[in-house]
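thread: overnight batch results

M.L. [08:02]
morning all. the overnight job finished for the chain we discussed friday. pasting input first so we're all looking at the same thing
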Amino acid sequence: MARRGNRVQVIMECTEHKETGMPGTSRYITTKNRKNSPDRMELKKYNPILKKYTIHKEIK
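M.L. [08:03]
and the structure it wrote out:
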């Protein structure tokens, strides 16, 4: 029987883009180790619509 791994896929969504009310969203897919970082991740990623680096938070 196969063991379940600790690495899971998560979706990151821009927080600044939501506040502006502009159409579209900036989302990235990445992986994280569930055991080492159980909390929601925050990363600075590039938002092509706003044309700058912004904070992207993990969504469910």
